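pinned: reference chain
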Amino acid sequence: MNKVRIHLLCVCLVLNLFCKSRNTDTLNTNLLQSSLSDILSLKPKLSNEAKVTIANLTETNVYETLKKYIGLKNIPKQAELYNIIAKNYLLANNSLSIIQSCNSSLYLKDNDYLNLSNSYFILSEVYALNSDYQQSQTYFKLFTGTKTKYVQSSNEQAKLRNENESKVTLLHVDAEDEISSIEKKGLELVRIKLESRQKEQEILLIKQENEVKEKAIQTQILEKKQALKSLELIKNQLENEKLTKEFDRINREKEIKGLQNEKNKSQIKLLNSRRKIDISEKAIKDLEIQSNKKKQQYLLIGMTLLGIFLALISFGFYTNYKQKKIIENTNSELQIIGENLRSSNTKLEDSFSEINEQKKIIEDKNSLIIDSINYSQRIQKSFLFKESEMAGYFKECFIISVPRDIVSGDFYFVTKKKHKVYIAVVDCTGHGVPGALISVIGYKELKHLIDYNDFELPQILNKLNHKINDTLNSDNAVGSDGMDLMLVEVDTIDRQIKFCGARSHCLFYTHNEFIEIKGDRKSIGEKEEGNDFSFTVHTFPFHEDDMLYMYTDGFSDQFSMLRKKMGSKLFKTILSDHRSLPLQNQKKELEDVLKNWQGEAKQTDDITLLGIKL
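pinned: its structure tokens
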């Protein structure tokens, strides 16, 4: 009878441990393994699959564990490990391997809704990173459906576990009523034994870890010493080789100098002997020539003096005549030049006074135009949202707006309807006054379509396109004036973002990565062909502290002093480098980056950038 009671109690303990292990993901593996080893000593006929599962809890190699679960035909664990492999490939940005791993998980066709939902979510993320938003949306819908089934299944399993636990509790009560005080003391001894073994195992593991760390440190010290010795040997060898080469070079130079000195001495002796012979021969010839030369010199000197005297007389007459002619011609030319200069001075004075009058007229008109444009800037700024006003809609935000020519062809629009916030950033055709006029028309129409209607985002863009064509492009030049636009709807209840873009895109930062949401390749105001074009809407969930960047192309199109364009790639890198700062600090850093990049170069385009923390 006592054996039956002990057997019953052990079964209850095992059931309790396995129920708890299925309810938590943070189970201490060593504790479970040490505790079950003692229970196994009481019930040696525990299934082989359970024993292998307990042993595999301490495996660190995912692929080895996967092979074992394939051998055990444990489909849920195989699916879970395939998802872990896919997440590792996601960190390495290996899209093909991610899709293969997820497909391997889905191929198992098990009703494990948790692993299925994880696979669908990973596939949704991968296709979004590769800009295949249609596939991403498909897998995201599968993810949400499967997640719902998992929640329902978890609730049913929790209900079933509660029923099992209540049954186990009843068995415990019945068993404890039948167990005598002696048997209770025996079970207390078993519990104490289990706890002591657990502590011994923990101490043993700590000692093993310390030994491994000490061995690793000693190995690193030995490797460092060996590397230093090798470097010292190489250094000595190089110095010896350098000294040997220098010694050989000096010896060779000495040998060459010795040979050259001997050769020079022999050549000098030979030259001296030849020189003495030449001097003696030359002295004899000079004596013979001198006697003949003296006779010729007297005759030549007399003829030369006579020729020089005649030449000087002729040259004096010719020079006097030529200078007289030059002076006469120069005087007549100077008189003509003086008359021309007096006439030119009179004309220049008249032209200068006329230019001054025209300059004054132009300055007056320019001052009036500048005053008008400055007042237009005040009007344009009056209908744009300020940062302080936007702070009521979002957790944090910043606005960078830098017109190229006082007034801007860019504008942004923010409004709220019930639990939805609408944000638009628009780049109109042209700069300065023409762009500003189009921006006023666009702002008015966009505000009317959103505030006074319940259209979806694609309908808003389509109706705005028709209105701009009717207003600005009613003649044959359809599509000449318009705007590039991005429009975002933030649903604060469903916590999702909808994006619709006309030849523009924005950046969404979530899960520690940037997602570029691209709009359609059509501007507002382009020529419509058959009215068969419709704008695409993209939907994404958002979480606390996710970031949204909306901007025109003015920032990325700015040139430096070296005539180098910043480009979208460098612009995205700059945003990524500063994303962790508070938004006002981000604004200051981005303005400094733009100022340093531009330098003294002229501003290329109107610049608009909105940063929003959701």
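why pinned: Strands lie at 396-402, 410-417, 420-428, 483-491, 496-502, 505-510, 513-518, 538-541, 547-551, 607-613. The longest strand covers residues 420-428.
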